[in-house]
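Anyone opening a protein record will find just a pair of labelled lines. A complete record is shown below as an example:
=====
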Amino acid sequence: MSRRVHETLARLPIKALYTIGELARASSIERRKLRRLLEREGVELLVSGRISYVPLSELEVKVRPLWEGIKAAQALRGFADE
């Protein structure tokens, strides 16, 4: 991952659900492309109106590189807070 991606992932907190937009901005991937990638990996999206949410558990199981990036960023934030 590029340094820019690491920096944007570093600002993404760990939470139960992410919008496609949040993940797209954090990973520097266009929103529609990210959605196609997630669907190709079999990620089950939760849709409410026009907003699609991605459960953290789906990332953890089906999109390990993105999950690992979020987890590493959280660990670094925790380390920096100490």
